[in-house]
Amino acid sequence: MTDHVYRLIEVVGSSETSIEDAIQSAVTKASATIRHIRWFEVIETRGQVENGKVHYYQVTLKIGFSIEDEHVHLQP
Amino acid sequence: MTDHVYRLIEVVGSSETSIEDAIQSAVTKASATIRHIRWFEVIETRGQVENGKVHYYQVTLKIGFSIEDEHVHLQP
Amino acid sequence: MTDHVYRLIEVVGSSETSIEDAIQSAVTKASATIRHIRWFEVIETRGQVENGKVHYYQVTLKIGFSIEDEHVHLQP
Amino acid sequence: MTDHVYRLIEVVGSSETSIEDAIQSAVTKASATIRHIRWFEVIETRGQVENGKVHYYQVTLKIGFSIEDEHVHLQP
Amino acid sequence: MTDHVYRLIEVVGSSETSIEDAIQSAVTKASATIRHIRWFEVIETRGQVENGKVHYYQVTLKIGFSIEDEHVHLQP
Amino acid sequence: MTDHVYRLIEVVGSSETSIEDAIQSAVTKASATIRHIRWFEVIETRGQVENGKVHYYQVTLKIGFSIEDEHVHLQP
Amino acid sequence: MTDHVYRLIEVVGSSETSIEDAIQSAVTKASATIRHIRWFEVIETRGQVENGKVHYYQVTLKIGFSIEDEHVHLQP
Amino acid sequence: MTDHVYRLIEVVGSSETSIEDAIQSAVTKASATIRHIRWFEVIETRGQVENGKVHYYQVTLKIGFSIEDEHVHLQP
Amino acid sequence: MTDHVYRLIEVVGSSETSIEDAIQSAVTKASATIRHIRWFEVIETRGQVENGKVHYYQVTLKIGFSIEDEHVHLQP
Amino acid sequence: MTDHVYRLIEVVGSSETSIEDAIQSAVTKASATIRHIRWFEVIETRGQVENGKVHYYQVTLKIGFSIEDEHVHLQP
Amino acid sequence: MTDHVYRLIEVVGSSETSIEDAIQSAVTKASATIRHIRWFEVIETRGQVENGKVHYYQVTLKIGFSIEDEHVHLQP
Amino acid sequence: MTDHVYRLIEVVGSSETSIEDAIQSAVTKASATIRHIRWFEVIETRGQVENGKVHYYQVTLKIGFSIEDEHVHLQP
Asked: Does B68 touch chain E (CB under 8 A)?
């Protein structure tokens, strides 16, 4: 495992429901094209307000994924 | 839209239920006197503990609002 | 001068032209209701893009002003 | 209350359910051996992903507790 | 207490005597118009020098106050 | 709009003329291959000096773009 | 001296009098159970306010101590 | 050289041997698909421990590369 | 694995030889009394100089360990 | 080139005109006594305000210069 | 005043008495060779402990001084 | 020892071999003109890459030295 190389990309997910749902939304979208997502880190939590209500949450994540057996994916 | 000016104020909301509820609590209170709240950013998440249970969450937000058509509101 | 007290507020100005113009835009708006603005600090520089062009700059400032002889202005 | 001394320790809790549950998980474990936990601060929010789903959240907390009447507990 | 909302404002106090005196100076001035100040956090400590002597200290504080029963005060 | 997902990439633009021109230079280059660029944030401003003159500015940006209707673009 | 190992713990001291007294208060309490305290670093300075007066200062410290000849003390 | 545009990507390399080897490991992997890598910056140094030994180092890097003559590579 | 709780402690290791050796020195000392160390993060790298030579390196680490099956170890 | 040593000094330049001009002002002054200035990094951007107008910009820079062939210049 | 250039240097002062005295100690020493010191900023506050007592405070300052009419002083 | 004053300067060393060698390179160069260097702190670790190999490491250090008995050296 010691020769693994990972890449980190930064993604913003959003949700009207919760912070957790905004995180999952970003992970789901990223998973559509990246196979080996392993972890995320929350970088920033923001949100939009309308008429005194939180309309939706926006969570910026770093998403880490293995590029071990899919080096074609490193192409930035 | 390019000549908009926004102001940011810092507010701490709390809730026994969730982080999202503490955010809404702060936004609700701020909306009582500020008309054009547009967004928030989470600055810090803390909480109080009693008898080994999270008693309530305290979330510090920056709240951004337009001062376009209500410049009397800029009065600090 | 040693008993001066200053207050800092956070404001976002914008401009289609330049970063300097976005700063002046925020200072001008703030000056409409605050008399003794003395200095600013740039906190963040962002911008909106449309069709591959910077549409406008958004600069977040802290603006410092004296509350010496206008203590009614401290009212947050 | 002015001669109180508190200690802060750093703990990582995890949960498959939510960020709030991961926080409570860390507080519960810490409470098994520390009596006077008073507050926490969230330092970092991360998580593990499996097959495009958030598998669990990992929240790093600072936990503050009084060492007033239990100074034997300061033993690091 | 769990539905309390606090506001944070940023103030700079100064004193020829000490850092503590500069803090009190800012708190005193803020107290002239804000009723429920609860706590402060030191953000920055600076000072002016004249002829090789510290002429005065300037301490930037965040001051937190309850807006529970005085919501008219939230007016920014 | 609440189910939008954005991606952030980090780019360095340069210009002999101004900071604004270095920002536009990075945005222009990025726009050649990314369709839905929405915003940027300045991360760092540096520059090269030759013979006591600023030779060119180098501005590091985070550029945010929608991956809504072009999910093939998430390919890192 | 090159094979020394130190440990850092985080402690909050308080005092009605001064920042220095709050620091000493934390060091005194920590010294009751830790023998080889060598240094401290101030992490944060806060305080409580009552009726417009600073009631007490709260200073968060990292305290460093040698675990050379008392390795039983590393027990966290 | 003033119209160069660079891109920065974030990569984690690992090695059982040394921090330098973990850096080279990340650079080697990235070089398999990116032609014009110019520099790196160390963002974070971590490692895994097994049985009281450092098992391997994990170094997070930002890697900068020119996109001058290979703009197809900007495709994120 | 999702109900694991970890604790982080901060330790300074030193070595005349290398940064890696200073890290191992801290991990070795910590392992004498903590069973389940899993990872470390480098917080700070410093060193002492004598006669123009680096005499030894000092590396501050956060060390993470599982408190799953040894909750008596949480005793701070 | 691999045995080059650079020094960084911190300088504040000012200008009534623009941020770029304040940077050049600091570089020009530094160049009067330092021969091999190579690059700068913007650390902070502030400014003074008079009567609601930005009176001048103040930009704090780190300026890097080679001390290769002028080691007498390292004298701090 | 808009064409002033300042330089910032970093100095550590110490005192057995107080933080303020450690600051003055650094300013006094710096004033022995620098004429136009104008301000300081506290960067870090540390201290040494002996036998459970703060032995002395160590305060790291940035000291700013004008190089307007003494450009020979810029010589780093 | 309590009236010691130290100065900190920022230097970048480089080496084709290792991070430790880059540190020593900066310390060696600084020692050519500064007598009482005591410690260093690593501020940043970067490097140049050529043909997919780390060509050299560049380490930015703060170097601290006593100005006790050589106050002529404070001349910035």
From this structure: no
Q: Kindly tell me if the per-residue pLDDT of L58 is higher than 50.
A: yes
Give dist(CA K57, CA E57) in Å, integer. Answer: 18
pTM, entire model:
0.92
Give H61's pLDDT tier (boundaries 50, 70, 90): very high
Domain ranges of chain F: 6-70
Lowest mean pLDDT among B22-31, D65-74, F56-65, H26-35: D65-74
E16 neighbourhood in chain K, CB within 8 Å:
none
Secondary structure class of L14 (helix, strand, coil): strand
Which residues lie closer than 8 Å to F72 by C-beta, 6 or more apart?
Answer: A33
Q: Would an 8 Å CB–CB cutoff place G47 in contact with chain E? A: yes
Cβ contacts (< 8 Å) between K10 and chain L: which residues? Answer: 7-9, 62
Assess G71–I contact: CB distance below 8 Å, yes or no.
yes
Is J7 within 8 Å of L10 when comparing Cβ atoms? yes
Distance (Å, whole) CA A29 – CA A16: 16
Nearest CA in chain H to I42: H45
Distance from C-alpha of D52 to C-alpha of D45, rounded to nearest angstrom: 18
Average pLDDT score, chain L = 89
Q: Is C38 exposed, middle or buried (0-12, 13-18, 19+ CB in 10 A)?
A: middle
Chain J residue at shortest CA distance from L26: J5
- DSSP symbols for C23-57: HHHHHHHHHTT-S-EEEEEEEEEEEEEETTEEEEE
Does the distance separating the beta carbons of A72 and H33 come in below 8 Å? Answer: yes
Task: Note whether J2 contacts K: Cβ–Cβ < 8 A.
Answer: no
**Interface contact D15, partner I, CB < 8 A:** yes
C6-71 placed in CATH 3.30.230.10: no
Instruction: Provide the greatest CA pair distance for chain B.
Output: 52
pLDDT at K69 over 80: no
CA distance A41 to C68: 45
Residues of I in contact with D60 (CB under 8 A): 8
Give CA separation, K70 vs B59, F51, J31, J56, K33, in Å: 50, 22, 14, 22, 12
Cβ C54–F19 below 8 Å, yes or no? no
Return the exposure string of F2-39: e unless at least 16 CB atoms fall within 10 Å of the residue's CB, then b. eebbbbbbbbbbbbbebbbbbbbbbbebbbeebebbeb
- H37 and L CB contact within 8 Å: yes
Rg, Å, chain L Cα set? 15
Report DSSP letters for C56-73, one per residue: EEEEEEEEEEE-TT-GGG
pLDDT of residue C69: 52
**Residue A3: other Cβ atoms inside 10 A:** 15
Q: Which residues of E touch G52 (CB under 8 A)?
A: 27-28, 31, 37
Q: Which CATH class is domain E6-69?
A: alpha beta
In terms of CATH, what superfamily is F6-70? Flavin-binding protein dodecin (3.30.1660.10)
Interchain CB distance below 8 Å, A33 and F75? yes
- ipTM of this complex prediction, to 2 decimal places: 0.92
Residue F38 at interface with chain H, using a CB cutoff of 8 Å? no
